[in-house]
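Design request, tokens follow.
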């Protein structure tokens, strides 16, 4: 079944070229079913890329999904045009009176700042607080996960000696959760960040379970037992070349970043990387949509 999106959204043409079924708003209006309403708070700097990556994963289920893209009204983007935002995005004020079945809050390249130093932090806290009463389940990604753990549970983040970048082995912790249904006991996932959250701090909340972790990269996946809050500290949505492009960008800026670990063949940045995490990325998003959103959300989300 399709993801519903604007006909002119750049991601549409890319996904259709991959034979992913997308549907126009007009055609979706003739379907005699209620689609899931999913909002995406896109905090990534290059929003078109993030849109495509997330929509690709959301499309791989039998569910019809109606997407609402949100950007921060309190922040001026330097890497995404105002025309694109005006055409395809809404702000929180536009939707704050609405209810959604699911919400995704992406990462952002601001993790070295204290949360309160981020210019849109007040607006984001409004969204995080609103999500607890107006959204069935929220999936937080990378810095979005750190921000939510801090806002909801007081879990702090810790700066690491150097950037964590690469594709790392993870294992399930054995805590029961539908979010990891069908997961291999060990699996791969990318990370790209300067800060982390500690498993002991997450578990100390008494409300959030650590579901998967890595000896090298730490916590990867955590969730509340009811699936209302899901936290992913890595980037399962990344394309095969995303870490390579980030590495080239950081090196061009003169940043002392390491070669992404376990990523390039023979650790050679000139070699073409291979995607070894795609399957579990799709499974994670499918599980979230099915078990945390579709099977739990009421037919009338305002009821």
């Amino acid at each position: 079944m399709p993801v519903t999106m604007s006909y002119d959204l750049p991601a549409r043409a890319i996904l259709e070229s991959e034979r992913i079924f997308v549907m126009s708003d007009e055609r979706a209006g003739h379907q005699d079913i209620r689609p899931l309403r999913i909002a995406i708070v896109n905090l990534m700097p290059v929003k078109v890329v993030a849109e495509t990556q997330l929509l690709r994963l959301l499309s791989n289920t039998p569910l019809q999904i109606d997407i609402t893209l949100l950007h921060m009204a309190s922040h001026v983007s330097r890497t995404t045009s105002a025309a694109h935002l005006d055409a395809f995005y809404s702000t929180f004020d536009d939707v704050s009176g609405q209810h959604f079945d699911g919400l995704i809050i992406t990462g952002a390249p601001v993790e070295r700042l204290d949360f309160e130093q981020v210019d849109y932090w007040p607006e984001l806290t409004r969204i995080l607080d609103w999500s607890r009463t107006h959204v069935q389940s929220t999936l937080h990604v990378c810095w979005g996960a750190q921000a939510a753990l801090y806002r909801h549970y007081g879990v702090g983040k810790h700066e690491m000696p150097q950037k964590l970048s690469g594709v790392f082995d993870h294992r399930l912790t054995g805590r029961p959760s539908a979010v990891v249904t069908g997961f291999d006991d060990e699996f791969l996932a990318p990370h790209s960040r300067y800060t982390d959250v500690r498993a002991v701090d997450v578990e100390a909340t008494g409300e959030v379970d650590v579901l998967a972790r890595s000896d090298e990269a730490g916590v990867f996946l955590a969730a509340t037992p009811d699936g209302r809050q899901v936290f992913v500290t890595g980037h399962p949505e990344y394309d095969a070349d995303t870490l390579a492009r980030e590495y080239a960008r950081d090196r061009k800026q003169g940043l002392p970043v390491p070669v992404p670990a376990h990523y390039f063949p023979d650790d050679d940045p000139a070699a073409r990387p291979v995607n070894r995490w795609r399957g579990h990325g799709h499974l994670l998003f499918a599980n979230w949509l099915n078990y945390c959103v579709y099977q739990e959300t009421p037919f009338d989300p305002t009821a």
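Comment from the thread starter after seeing the answer: thanks! The domain at 3-294 is CATH 3.40.50.880 (Rossmann fold).
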